[in-house]
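It is worth pausing here to work through a concrete case rather than discussing structure prediction in the abstract. The textbook approach is simple: state the sequence, then state the predicted structure, then interpret. We follow exactly that order.
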Amino acid sequence: MDEMRKQKEQNIEDLMVLLYEELEDSGNPINCATFNLSEDDPNLINLLGSSENIRKTVNACVTRELMKYRYLGSHGLDGLAFTEKGKGLALSVIKREELQSSAPVYNIGQITNNGPSQIGNNNIQNITNILSQLMEQADKTTASEEEKKDFKAKVNAVLSHPLINTVISAGAGIASALL
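Step two, the predicted structure:
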């Protein structure tokens, strides 16, 4: 049942994106465009799998107010229009896909760990690397040596604060390693 639910949600997202792209290609605003879909449309069958899935997906979109019937008494697959909610879903799916396709993927294989680890974003290792880069960049600036020392002292003071030590669990060791 869970797999059927996932497929239904995927079909709804796919239909919203397809219709939104058609809408953009036409140049019509959502309050002026009307869709007359067909159970025999090869693009829809290819996308959703069957004429039964097309009808069920459209019904779900209407029920969720992602689409509405443009004309009084309309039912089925004719006279459909996007709602702002449907447009929002389509755009969020498009943006999510763009983010997923642009994010770098690191496949590091299987990791077995019997102690503390530092895998992922925002860990101590990343924080240390960022602060190291910050110190290196400070050294490369045209500021005077006194200004650079003052900067490093202030960073050290921040890193030495007990709350920082608690938050990043690194203690003052980070500051001394960077200076």
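Step three, interpretation. Residues 92 and 171 are 41 Å apart (CA to CA). The two ends are 58 Å apart (CA to CA).
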